Amino acid sequence: MSIDLSELIGRPVIIGGGAAGLMAALRLAPEPVVLLSKSPLGAEASSMWAQGGLAAAVGDDDDPALHLSDTLAAGAGLCDEAAARQIVQAAPAAVDRLAELGVAFDRGVGGHWRLGLEAAHGRNRIVHATGDGTGREIMRALIAAVRSCPSVTLLEGVEARRLIVADNAIQGVVAVRGDEALILATTRVVIATGGIGGLFLDSTNPAGCFGQGLALAARAGAVLSDLEFVQFHPTAFDGPSRPLPLLTEAIRGDGAVLIDETGARFMAEEPGAELAPRDVVARAVWRRRAQGHRVFLDARIKPGRDFAARYPVISAFCGMAGIDPAVDPIPVRPAVHYHMGGIAVDHAGRSTVEGLWACGEASRTGLHGANRLASNSLMEAIVCAQWVAESVAGTPRGIGKPREIAAIPPAPEASAVRPLLSDALGVLRERGAIAAAICNLLPLAETGGASADPALVGLMISVAAYAREESRGAHFRSDCPDTLPVAQSSSFTLSQTIVAARHIAETAQPSLRSALP
């Protein structure tokens, strides 16, 4: 189908077809909007895979102030308290809005929401759909709503490659459909492209999620913040499949425990035990495995025989591996799951580039700080997407004056980057390994080839991790194990990252500089 670009001039362009992008498009209605998705809707969206649900203070014994308190505690001093308060206060209304759009959340006696418990939450406040299929159910409803919304022009199979910027203001989007280049003239762009798990060998994210939105924003001159904070989920299914299937934290909320192959419950003496913050549990599992043990999630007693009914998706993939969770411990390992850092935005989702907004995992709102509280991510995506849409709608329409592009950047490919980041930026990190990754990533980021954009994002994460000489939340430096008394966010532009990376490479030991030209 041909695309008449003249009809789309001046319309807001949303890049990304996950929950945040879909919700932003719906909230902008009836204003005409263009939604770009590089694959068919739902095919490569992390939102589709989300099992845990949405965190919202909707229970009779709960309150947004309690939700805020748990969020700040998990964030290890780096949350923006004002932003976090605003977001968690809006969470109950977001649940109601999704229900209005047709999301079939699980209900208990009397028709009230059935609420689950997850790590570091002080109350049962996780709203689920079909047990462990929350993301899939939310995406089903949102996709149906978008496809039937006349104000949304949906361009599937179209990938954004660059943002066109003049005088720090958006002028257009360079996109590709097959071999065809598309230049969309607009002064309003929303990045909602998801996370960075595809930059690592072991991740629960789709392989295609490797920080495209961060690369677009960085090359446009935007500030990115707290990129070093990469959350590892402690209980990914330990098997050959990639991405690694996730075993939701809700299983531990139902009473499942972590054991090794000897049956020892190694988290029992930790504060919070299996429901300690994710970074604590992930490091414990990582260390146990490093000692030569295998680690298992033991759900045989709790939830026991109810497992298949409570977690049908997980039960199905365990069954394909020959495991019955009611009678067999489930092998697990940590895997990259969520990125707390991202494009620095204000409370309306505006970046430091005029006309550029971000929402969802690609943004850094200040809600998550150094360690995301379980199930706050889907909630943040829905809440903030609506605020971004309101801000976009309140910004005067501009035509945009996109310049001619000399060459379309190649399709990004992350295979060369994955082993570098996996070695240097795992659950435990160390200065020398990070420096080695920087030395190897820098030439890839500067080549302009297919590896350039993934390497650029990896380089920015690595430089931020190198600069943070402390351990805080999900960022743990074995050579700097202490937490500094004052928490400070990190912020970098692309040019600042390149300068820092070259300095690190020039001062690195000769053995680390072998990759440099």
Automatic annotation (TrEMBL):
<dbReference type="InterPro" id="IPR036188">
    <property type="entry name" value="FAD/NAD-bd_sf"/>
</dbReference>
<dbReference type="GO" id="GO:0008734">
    <property type="term" value="F:L-aspartate oxidase activity"/>
</dbReference>
<keyword id="KW-0285">Flavoprotein</keyword>
<comment type="similarity">
    <text>Belongs to the FAD-dependent oxidoreductase 2 family. NadB subfamily.</text>
</comment>
<dbReference type="InterPro" id="IPR027477">
    <property type="entry name" value="Succ_DH/fumarate_Rdtase_cat_sf"/>
</dbReference>
<comment type="pathway">
    <text>Cofactor biosynthesis; NAD(+) biosynthesis; iminoaspartate from L-aspartate (oxidase route): step 1/1.</text>
</comment>
<dbReference type="InterPro" id="IPR003953">
    <property type="entry name" value="FAD-dep_OxRdtase_2_FAD-bd"/>
</dbReference>
<dbReference type="Pfam" id="PF02910">
    <property type="entry name" value="Succ_DH_flav_C"/>
</dbReference>
<keyword id="KW-0560">Oxidoreductase</keyword>
<keyword id="KW-0274">FAD</keyword>
<keyword id="KW-0662">Pyridine nucleotide biosynthesis</keyword>
<feature type="domain" description="Fumarate reductase/succinate dehydrogenase flavoprotein-like C-terminal">
    <location>
        <begin position="457"/>
        <end position="482"/>
    </location>
</feature>
<dbReference type="InterPro" id="IPR005288">
    <property type="entry name" value="NadB"/>
</dbReference>
<feature type="domain" description="FAD-dependent oxidoreductase 2 FAD-binding">
    <location>
        <begin position="13"/>
        <end position="378"/>
    </location>
</feature>
<protein>
    <recommendedName>
        <fullName>L-aspartate oxidase</fullName>
        <ecNumber>1.4.3.16</ecNumber>
    </recommendedName>
</protein>
<dbReference type="InterPro" id="IPR037099">
    <property type="entry name" value="Fum_R/Succ_DH_flav-like_C_sf"/>
</dbReference>
<dbReference type="Pfam" id="PF00890">
    <property type="entry name" value="FAD_binding_2"/>
</dbReference>
<dbReference type="InterPro" id="IPR015939">
    <property type="entry name" value="Fum_Rdtase/Succ_DH_flav-like_C"/>
</dbReference>
